[in-house]
Amino acid sequence: MKRKKKKQGRNTKIGVYFFAFILGVIITSFILKGFTIVKNSRFRSDSRFNFLITNNKESSIISFLPQNHSVSVLKIEGNIENINRFAEVPLDGEVRYSLLDLKKPPPTLISDIFFALSDIKTNFTPLDLFRIFLFTKTANPGNFTVRSVSVNLDEAERDKISSLLFADPKISDERLSIEVVNATDEFGVGNRLARLITNISGNVILVSTSQKKEDKSLILYKGKKSYTLERLGKFLGLSVSEIKDQTLADITIRIGKDYKNLSNF
Questions:
Q1: Do 53 and 109 meet the contact criterion of CB atoms below 8 Å apart?
Q2: pTM (2 decimals)?
Q3: Domain annotation covers residue 32
């Protein structure tokens, strides 16, 4: 009888240990998944944050500015094959869903996206989408700026609107000089990047073409690291390197042949 009780007690302990082990594995997997979601988050709460929404017929670029909790919206009327070259602003992410009605007010549109998580195509994490939803819902109605552009609007007029909607106060305040060097065989690459940088308040002082073609793109800077340098490096996907030699600009971006694999300007 005692042996039977001991055996039952031993089995109970084994069952408890096994349950605790399984519970520990589940909790650990949730924690690791949470860390992964946070690590892969694209949402920026310390600077301007831009993202594309499209239903494959029309598109909108929505931009958040945390400093004053404002929302800017650029509605693009008509289908554009290359939205990056049309608007020339850095995009931190995108949402694609054919059933979206882009004519709805931004808060309603964002709500539709949030409640259709299983159907949309996006490179945002669920945490990103929740923070986007929360930012839009808590923004004052007077802090929304909406502009529309047609596919036929000329480049100069588009850039005027983009520089109004997507200006970055931090880049503007630093006012660092920027040089863009085209070290590829492709004509116009330097000017396209210069447009993008100017549209977010960057101070481009020179665009040039290098006689020596380079395979790898690179950002060179002098002095201390800055927000402008960090922002450029992040959305262009380029490594940065300090340079000790005397240069014309505070930041020099050398565009190599690999730029197409790194960014979409």
A1: yes
A2: 0.81
A3: no
Q: Can you say whether the dihedral through the CA atoms of 197, 199, 203, 209 is positive or negative?
A: positive
Cβ-based neighbour number of residue 11 at 10 Å: 10
Task: Give the Cα separation of 228 and 48 in Å (integer).
Answer: 12
**Mean pLDDT, each 10-residue run in order, the chain (265 residues):** 52 58 54 45 77 94 94 91 89 94 94 91 92 94 94 92 95 97 94 96 96 94 94 92 90 93 76
> How far is Cα of residue 195 from the mean position of the Cα atoms in its chain?
18
200 and 244 share one domain: yes
One domain for residues 94 and 74:
yes
State the number of CA atoms in the 13 A half-sphere of 198 facing the CB: 18
* Contact criterion met (CB below 8 Å) for 48 and 166: yes
Where is the domain boundary, 165, 190, 208?
165
What does the pLDDT read at residue 253? 97
Range of the domain at 207: 169-261
